[in-house]
Amino acid sequence: MSHHLVELIELRHTYPDGTVALDGVTFTITHGEAVGVIGANGAGKSTLLLHLNGYLTPGSGEVRIGHSLLTKETLPEIRRTVGMVFQDPDDQLFMPTVFDDVAFGPCNMGLALQDIEKRVTAALDLVEAGHLRDKPPYHLSGGEKKRVAIATILSMEPSILVMDEPTSGLDPHARRQLIRLMGDFHHTKIFTSHDLDMVMELCSRVIVLSHGKVRADGAPREIFADEKLLAECRLEKPLSMQGCPVCGVNS
């Protein structure tokens, strides 16, 4: 059984106010794929991600991780398999120090103290944040918080990395660091983003959501070349595919 398989079958979710966020979403993501989920605001992207490790419960339909149906009984194992990084790192950082935050997951996995120390050190080194380990999270910059939030997930050694708008609020240097880090994660990764150039760089596949439905699913360059689809879904081409504003030549 592959723990990296992600399968959604006719997934539906309606919020208490009656808003239909997901309307019959179906797709399968296999081991090692890098998938960007894109769409306009309100398309259902964040809602979709929150179903992948049980933060939200489907109104109907199924979520399967590694052929296991996501249920209350399978939730603990699935959350060890699927690491979720929220858009706002303050939603993930709540302990007195960075070390404590990154150690929180391994501690709850029941690991020995020496193994926890190894995992924390390795995760912080991966995000180039080892020098922050003793700092309170609220003293960190936005980019530092984002990297530490990612480390809290990497310390649990997930097979599937899920990220909601990972480059949101980052300066160019921090964005480039994050893209390099995500490129080095060789397991399955799924993320939402309005940063379509990052999607072009990192993803082998793009899923387009519109009004809670899958409108397209395919290779990034094919998706971004479909101007009719982009217009209908309120999207634009990545800057790297747009013509030079001075000479009109495409890159």
Describe the structure.
The strands form 2 sheets. The chain has a 6-stranded mixed sheet, sandwiched between helices. A 4-stranded antiparallel sheet has the order 2-1-4-5, with helices on one face. By secondary structure, the protein is an alpha/beta fold. The termini are far apart. The protein has a single domain, classed as 3-Layer(aba) Sandwich (Rossmann fold), CATH 3.40.50.
Summarize the model shown.
With 251 residues, the chain is α/β, with parallel strands linked by helices. 33% of the residues lie in helices and 23% in strands.
Q: What summary fits the major beta sheet?
A: 6 strands, mixed
- In the predicted model, the low-confidence regions spanning at least 5 consecutive residues are none
CATH superfamily: P-loop containing nucleotide triphosphate hydrolases
Radius of gyration: 19 Å
Count of separate structural domains: 1
Multimer state: single chain
Mean pLDDT score: 91
Helix amount: 25-40%
Approximately what portion of the residues adopt beta-strand conformation? 15-25%
Number of strands: 10
CATH third-level topology:
Rossmann fold
CATH architecture, by name, is 3-Layer(aba) Sandwich
The number of helical segments is 9
Order of helices and strands: EEEHEEHEHHHEHEHEEHH
**What is the first-to-last residue Cα distance?**
43 Å
Structural class: alpha/beta
CATH class (first level) name:
Alpha Beta
* Spatial shape: globular
Strand order of the largest sheet: 6-7-8-3-9-10
